[in-house]
Write a structure and sequence with these properties.
Layout: H1 6-28, H2 53-63, H3 69-105
Amino acid sequence: MARQTRSERRARRAAQEESKAAVERTRTRTPVRPAVEPARVDGAPRQLPGGGFVRESWGELKKVEWPGQQQLIQGTVVVLVACVIVGLYLFIADEIFRRFVQHVLLK
């Protein structure tokens, strides 16, 4: 690619400045304010904010992929085995430290 000439760089900068000015012109326009209460097509009464929380929550719960019985059993077994392993580790560590404190530090 050939190197830009000074006039090409000046033209590019002028175009950039022009586009920035156009953006600034659009930003300075007063924004159109929405109506206080948007018109309803179906004519339904307006709901209070947060009134659809239960309905939305129920809809989200319908999207959840719930585990089957086999997955539930496997997950429960994994949790129980992990609890037994951690419990045994803590019991053994507690016994070792108890004996260490009694026989070494307290004598």
